[in-house]
Amino acid sequence: MARRLSAAGRSACAAWIGLWLGAASLAAQTYISTTGQTSISADYDPTGPAPKAPVTVAAPSTLPFLAAVPAGQYLDLKAAAARFSQSSFTSPALVDVMPGGARAPGAATPIAATPSFSWQGIPPVLQPPSPDMAVGPSDALMVINSNLAQFTRPGTLVSVTSFQSWFNDVLATTCPSSCLLFDPWIVYDQLHGRFLLLVGATPSSQPSRTFSYLLLSVSKGATFAGGWKNFALNASAEGMNQTQFWGDSWRLGYDNVAIYLSGNMYNVSGNFQYAKVRVLKKSDVYNPTATTLAYQELGSGSAKLRNADATIAFSLVPIRQRGSPNSAAVGLLVNTANVPNLPAAYLTVWKIADPLATPLTMTPTTLTGTSYGLPAPAPELGTSATLDSGDTRILKAVYRSGFLYTARDTGYTDQATTITYDVIDTVALKIASQARLLNTNAFYPAFDIPATVPAGTQFASTSLITGTTTAPDGTLTYPGISSLKNGTGYFDINFGATSRWGDYFGGTVDPVSGGLWVSGEYALAPLSGGFGQSGTWAGYFPWLTTSAFTDVPSTSPYYDFINVLSSWQITTGCSANPPLFCPTNIVTRDQIATFVIRSMLGNTFTYSNTPHFTDVPATSPFFPYIQKLADLGLTHGCTATTYCPGNPVLRQDAAVLLVRGKLESLFGDNFTFPTTPFFTDVPATSPQFPYVQKMYELGLTTGCSATQFCPTATMTRQEAAVFLTRAFLN
Q1: Is the same domain home to 648 and 565?
Q2: Buried b / exposed e across 330-342, counting CB within 10 Å, b at 16+?
Q3: What is the largest CA-CA distance in the chain?
Q4: Residues linked to residue 332 through DSSP beta bridges, in sequence order
């Protein structure tokens, strides 16, 4: 039976066909934070025996997708968008860089078009699993709505742990009766070498859903097996007050100094109320002895966060910082227009002035670009059932070196179900470019920004991996993961109606080798009776670089690292004509100062004018870099008054400098490290032992052999390229 559009649906349809409208211009409001804290915490050892869970955990399918409008209105709006849907395309998929026109599929790309290897993820499930993924130096972790799985980096499954067991010690306090655990996010913070896991928790029964918690788990080091710390934060609290609202669709982000949690609040009937942001200091979250976790909150109470058109802001997404861990905080979040206000042409960027200040202040800025609308449901082969492609909320925001990159599901009258990618200049606060995928039904991007993406540029087509129901030739197919895993059947759990298809895919930069890891879901053949089922899949896409020097062949294991170092202007080589790198030359102490400071701060930085060292005069071309190295406390020279700039750099000294450069701003020299020696030639009595241990744990080095580090060997330029790229660019 045909569905009759409500007034809201007819209005939305008219908006789709009519003109695309921009946002109203209003004066920006500055928001002030309130404070809160939790004392609900517990240590967790994932290698120990599984505890008995204290509560019943409900199936994840009981929580519907929640937009900023009631369910009926959302369905009407999706039905209005469906009139523009296409089941086939006459051309292959490509990238349309708006408004400049389509980019050819053969354009240079930062990662390979096909994975070097891939594997089956967490076993098949009946409900869309919404897989996310994080990869550290030695572990690949995948989460779905109920479990966390540990894989080796080559893809061997080691263990699967339910969230019920993982958070056992904090669930008894937060959700003592039947509890729903949902919306998991897993990230590896490559800036400081920690995993972060965020899971929502709320009563499984709708009449009881008057509160919720955020379950935050942080690893104590860079490995899965090194132990974790669990915290439970009351998402329904506003300062000292307890509301009757519960949180959904929380997002997790970080920069060099803070962890950002942001989500949407709903009443017991599932109606959207407002969005809010919580900010936690990294120094607190990453303290393994912490039992109380303080936070500051923005958007709670009467100070609801609003877009420039005066609508209540929805689904603010915090950035995840890539690249150099400079001491400056980023403090950025971004969101799209609310569903009822589509079509719209703006994004709102939110800036927290100083994430370490008390109270916090946050100010929105409206950026106008190309108008967008709600994505249409995605058609699929073999059935009239369609897949829900979600709303227009930003699904991921990544910050790298002054630019903010986003990916989101969107719809246009000429491309009903697609992905839009934004590049935002955070210095000028303007949209630098926008792109979308053409000739495909695409949704839920697996997205991140490797070091091979030049600053401020758009991805090219073969680097954009999404969920899709469209084959490379433009024909309709089963839902799968582009360039990674084809579907093997249609997906239908509502028997001919629109079926939910997860909330996101996973994408993350490799901290060691620099490529892109991807996780997603694909449709398996339906069960008997036609009920759909999903599988999960993961794969690794290597990075691609362009040769910068004639003396570094593509067969060299250092090739990509050296090219990345050149692309970020950290090195110009040892000769301009011909372009040479001199890969086996020994690095001197003045050169390593230049490499480290450029990797951390670029070439624009302030430094003290009075020389720290008598053998580095102000006339030296290395003076600014050596001065900054000393200003930051990263070096104390070779004596109390000299730096010894022309001396060669020993590998053990490089370990100290690199680890300090990566961790000094947060931990100083008081970082944790494994106490069992990794190398036979670096004993625990060595003053460089903590740094060499940490360097290995972070994946910056594997030593000079399987058992040795060669601490007193001199460091070559090609070795420096690997160390610097892993420490500061991946």
Answers
A1: yes
A2: bbbbbbbbbbbbb
A3: 86
A4: 351
